[in-house]
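Re-run with default settings, no changes from the original entry. Doing this only to confirm the output is reproducible before filing.
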Amino acid sequence: MAKTLRILTTLMGWACVAIGLFHVLLGNAALPGAGSAGATVDSWGRFMGAGFVGYGLAWLWAARQRPIPARTVRWLAGVFLLGGVGRLLSLAVHGWPQWFQIALTVVELSLAPVFLLLAGAEERTGLTVVPGDASGRRGAL
């Protein structure tokens, strides 16, 4: 489970960075179904894309730690889950969005609990890194 956590955390980080940069660079064109949403939505989308890059970098930071910090993974997964809940709220208030947004909602609502379940996997192995020793050792420092 620890290896799965490390792989998923790394993939999540890179995916979020790529998606965020995509939104920063393309603005409204990055939003399926948005069409010509105007300058205000374009500005907001590009700003949120930059925030998503930062979110992805936080996942990558966590993935580089030894062990991966469970608390950080839980917080990041909680933010991801909140995003999915926000999409559900939008669906309830405004109706069905473009199909890709539905797919993203399913991913957010299903992947976040996986991260919450795996969050402490590496900490439970007892893996620590002794300063100056990149190999990692079992036990406390």
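The chain has five helices and two strands. Residues 135-141 have pLDDT under 50 and may be disordered.
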